[in-house]
Design a protein that fits this description.
Length: 242
């Protein structure tokens, strides 16, 4: 794909697994791949920490490593929201990194992170242009999980590249228009290629967040309380007359 002209290449979630002792060799290969091909390369890794595995112990580093065309490591991102009960991954620090490149500001998150609007609101606040969202799904939640990610892109005015194993990979612009998609179970090479805008847009949501929604909730509570008070007074007046 790099030879064909791709400038940004991203794998799906935890595309390779390694033990911690061998991680450095893997990182060297990732840096070499990026440098030899002149690409921004998002390599996704499940790194297994040594030690006895016990129930409740976090022993996997589910992360995405971004290399630039010179082979430099620009960012190492840990998945912020591991799936509860089924993913023994060490969580990130809650930050969504946004990295300046010649192809816009690239943001990085992983799969389940996009289910949390407050977490993803960092995209709009930091002016992200493209969200790279490597993911891993299964048939039963496809395409619904991808649609949640599209909503996050619309809310924050970013384009989205969501390479996914086990479901449908998508790329969409900041209006939610899907410009490329591929089903994991289709025959052929497991690749989705898309042209995405290198500039996002400012949105009203990224300024006010969920303020309007909370205002609506407050309005409903006020209306209900007013009606309860109204009927309470009426009931009191009737009983006193009797």
């Amino acid at each position: 794909e790099a030879l064909a002209g791709s400038k940004i290449v991203a794998w799906s979630e935890a595309a390779v697994f390694t033990v911690k002792d061998d991680e450095e060799k893997l990182m060297e290969k990732g840096a070499q791949l990026a440098k030899e091909n002149g690409i921004y390369f998002l390599m996704t890794v499940g790194s297994l920490r040594p030690g006895k595995i016990e129930f409740g112990k976090k022993f996997i580093e589910n992360k995405a490593v971004l290399f630039d065309p010179d082979g430099n490591t620009l960012n190492v991102f840990y998945k912020n929201r591991p799936v509860p009960l089924i993913e023994p991954s060490i969580p990130g620090n809650g930050d969504v990194p946004v990295i300046q490149t010649p192809y816009g500001k690239l943001a990085i998150s992983i799969c389940y992170d996009a289910d949390f609007p407050q977490l993803m609101s960092q995209l709009g606040k930091k002016g992200a242009d493209i969200l790279l969202l490597p993911s891993g799904d299964w048939k039963e939640i496809s395409p619904y999980h991808a649609q949640i990610a599209i909503v996050r892109a619309i809310e924050n005015g970013t384009s989205l590249l969501r390479p996914v194993s086990g479901a449908i990979s998508i790329a969409c612009d900041y209006t939610g228009n899907v410009v490329a998609r591929r089903n994991y179970y289709d025959n052929g090479e497991g690749v989705v290629v898309a042209y995405l805008a290198t500039a996002g847009t400012n949105t009203f949501y990224s300024t006010i967040g969920d303020s309007f929604a909370w205002a609506c909730v407050a309005g409903i509570v006020f209306i209900v309380a007013a009606q309860v008070f109204k009927y309470s007074k009426r009931y009191t007046a009737i009983t006193s007359t009797q």
